[in-house]
């Protein structure tokens, strides 16, 4: 796997604020889904784990849709709708206590999540991905 420094992508980096706000929206969506009686917690958990790979959302979570962001699979530069395992890796890091705090710290310091490194993904602006013809 190439390091972030060696990997030249044709897209501008997404701001930390946009990523955090999109993530908060996704947490709110998951919390709302979990309000369904008896099985709601499963809907919320499934959403958190696979939110970037749902084909009915075109490979974007609700938060990313609102901020016009997208998570792509590297090195293919394709939507995660074809790579659900990458979305699940990213989601697992988000829901594991302590690891999620370390992931947030890593995002703030290095501008990329640990989950993105492990899953070989990046968050980009959706129009950059569309313009590249992916």
From TrEMBL:
Keyword annotations from UniProtKB, A to Z: Membrane, Transmembrane, Transmembrane helix
GO cellular component, one term: membrane
Residue ranges crossing the lipid bilayer per the database entry: 21-50, 88-108
Protein known as: RDD domain-containing protein
Source organism of this protein record: Marinilabilia rubra
């Amino acid at each position: 796997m190439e390091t972030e420094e060696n990997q030249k992508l044709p897209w501008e980096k997404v701001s930390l604020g946009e990523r955090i706000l999109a993530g908060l929206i996704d947490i709110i969506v998951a919390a709302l889904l979990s309000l369904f009686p008896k099985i709601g917690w499963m809907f919320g958990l499934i959403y958190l784990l696979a939110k970037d790979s749902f084909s009915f959302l075109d490979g974007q979570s609700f938060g990313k849709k609102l901020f016009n962001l997208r998570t792509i699979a590297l090195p293919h530069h394709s939507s995660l709708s074809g790579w659900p395992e990458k979305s699940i890796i990213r989601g697992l890091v988000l829901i594991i206590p302590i690891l999620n705090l370390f992931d947030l710290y890593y995002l703030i310091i290095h501008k990329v999540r640990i989950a993105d490194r492990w899953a070989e993904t990046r968050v980009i602006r959706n129009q950059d991905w569309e313009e590249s013809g992916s």
